Amino acid sequence: MQLIGFKYQTRLKTAQHLESPSAQAYPVLFTTAYTLLGLRSGCTLVDSTVSNLKSDTIALLKSSRLPLLAAERYCLRAQLPEFIGGPSGKSFFIDGGNGFDVYLFTSIAREHGLDLHDALDNIIISRAFTPYELVQLIAKDANRVIDRYRPKLLVISNVFDLFSRDKETDEARRLMGKIRNAIFRINRSRRVPIVITARNRVEGIEPIVQEACNVEVEFVEERHQIVSRLLRHPSKLRMQIAGYVGDELYNQESLSPEAMTRG
Questions:
Q1: Under a CB-based contact definition with an 8 Å cutoff, are residues 155 and 91 in contact?
Q2: What CATH number corresponds to the domain at position 152?
């Protein structure tokens, strides 16, 4: 009986403490299933290959046209409220190739029924005209932008364009190494998904960026249609053992989902 009475008194004191004005209140926060799934572009081909962008995603999208469309759609959809699949925030677009298309962006905003002025206010655009400016924007200025605006997405568009004009290979590699390190650091410390687009390839420096990416997709035109090639994705097996699929020996470090269906 004493034990029961002790429990009752303890509960009463706890209830009185919670009702007191000095008690600290903690707001109840909810999230939606859409938010847990991550950010989508709304483009079927892109979403079926890249999957959804999570906070730890660093995606490299390669092609001439489709990656820019996907990047601008990601930026627009980052503004959508959580109950329809968006993180309800701003996006930071670093333009390395003078490629941002404001008319395309506003047409995507109309498609989603958003006010054009609000949509444009929720995207921060910085344009680089030299490789050194691109390094400055990514390695230094991005931190200040993130601190001030708290964007939910970082896009680095046409990352190799400025380096295609740089003939000093060693210097280009040094600068790209700084970009790679900054991309990895921002993603890990800020938990912001990063989308990198590339419409051309520069021998010697593309592998440097690839080192920071956990998703890599190439879109190519075949027989008058665009198809996607998934080159890297976290869903691929990372087991350091060997085995057989049918009659073929494979190493599971590079096993694709398609190979798993054979045999």
A1: yes
A2: 3.40.50.300
